[in-house]
Amino acid sequence: MNSTLSLLLLWGPAVRAQQPAPASAASLLAFQQAHLGRILFSATRIPPTGYADDAHYIGYHAHTLTPKSSLYLTAFLTTSLPDALARLAPDAQRTDFMKRGSFQYCFYVDNELVYTAYLQPEPQYLIEENAQPVLHQPVLAPETSRRKSQSLWANLLANGGKKALAEGSHMLRLVIRPYIQSPLLQVGPVLADGQVALNVTRHAAPARAAALVAP
C-alpha cells in the first residue's frame, strides 16, 4: 500500500475526532448571556452561528497588528438595533427610523477618544433578531473588497488613529451605541463595550478594509 495513503488511513479518524462538535443552542445562548453587553475580538471571521467558548477569541493576550492583519468583532448587544431605535423615536414607524438610524462606534486608544463613526443606516444590517442579538463585523479585513469609497479602519487612521496607533503596544477600545437623525442627532445608551490589546509592529493601513461608514 502507498505509504502516504497508509498515513491518511491511520490518521484520518484521529483528525476527524479532533474537530469540535457543533455547539448546542442551549450552550450558545448561555455563552451569549454570559457576555451580554460585551464586545469580543477575533483574528478570524466568526460564523453567524457563533461559538460557545472563548477559545476562538483573542481574549487578554496581545494581538499583533501588521498591514496584513485581520481583526473582527462579535458584539453581544443588550438589545436589538430596531428596539434601541424605537426607544429613541417612539413616535416613528419602524421602516422610517431604520432608514435614519444605525450604530455609533466610538474608538478609544489608550483611554483617549480618537474617532467617532456613524454607520450607514441599513435595515437589519448584520443583526440577528433573536433573544440576545449578536453583531458580527470586520474591523480590519485586508482580504475584503471595498464596497464603498471609504472604510471604517481607513477613517479611524485618517482621524487621529494613525498617530495614536504608532508602533508599539496599545489598548484599543470600542463602544457601540444606537443613533438616529430625526432631525436632530440622538444617541442612545451603550449596547456593547469591549477592548483588545494590540502590538503594532508597522503602520496598519491596508489597501483594502471593510467598508462600514458613510463617505
TrEMBL record:
It comes from Hymenobacter cyanobacteriorum. Residues 1-17 form the signal peptide. This is DUF4105 domain-containing protein. The keyword Signal applies. It comes from the Bacteria. Keywords: Signal.
